Amino acid sequence: MSGRQVIGALTIGQSPRTDVIPEIQEFLGGAEILQAGALDGLSRAEIDALAPEPGSGDVLVSRLNDGSWATMAEEKLIPLLQRQAEGLCADGAKLIMLMCTGKFPDVLRVGVPVVYPQRLLYGVVPVLAGGRRVGVVNPDPKQLAQSRHNWGEALEDVFVMAANPYQRDTDWDAVAETLLAQRVELIVLDCIGYARGVKE
């Protein structure tokens, strides 16, 4: 039992993330994945209360179980994420993957390593880009100013746009055409919700 490999997948939305976990399971070497979400068990009114105020900090977007999505303020999510992270550890998780590309600087206080995807992106993308023009796609227009600021500090030449991975009528051909017109050479889909179909 002690050798069991258990990874906690912590989403800022609701679990289970049936849109994401099946796609990454094959890369995790047979490890058991436990899922939890910051918004698990909350009513729609409670979720709506997490919406960002005008001029507040980082804006985040995540999927809900009914297929819709919610826009939230990062600072309002931290206590909810901490509670769920503690629950994952109590259930045996030896590592936690935060299923979000938001900044979240060392916010989760648990006794296991936490993987913050944003740090991986900001470390790897500038190396891959090598000075080339990068197109960054975010889910919500309210995220564009923060994205321009954050990626502008990491990259020499960046174009930022919005396209919602959770919205069924998003025109991905139009997104691709916009990126092509902007002459980007590398594309960053800056949200966990961009599934393999969108990438293709």
What does this structure look like?
- With 200 residues, the chain is α/β, with parallel strands linked by helices.
- It contains seven helices and nine strands.
- The strands form three sheets. The protein has a four-stranded parallel beta sheet, covered by helices on one side. Strands 8-7-9 form a three-stranded parallel beta sheet, with helices on one face. It has a two-stranded antiparallel ribbon with strand order 3-4.
- α5 (144-154) links the parallel β7 and β8 (158-162).
- The longest helix is centred in the middle third of the chain and has 17 residues, at 74-90.
- The chain is globular, with a radius of gyration of 17 Å.
**Class from secondary-structure proportions:** alpha/beta
Radius of gyration: 17 Å
Q: Give the integer mean of the pLDDT values.
A: 92
Largest sheet: 4 strands, parallel
Order of H and E elements: EHEHEEHEEHEHEHEH
Helix content: 25-40%
Number of strands: 9
End-to-end Cα distance, whole Å, is 39 Å
Beta-strand percentage range: 15-25%
Unreliable segments (pLDDT under 50, ≥5 consecutive)?
none
What is the global morphology?
globular
Strand sequence of the main sheet, in spatial order?
2-1-5-6
Number of helices: 7
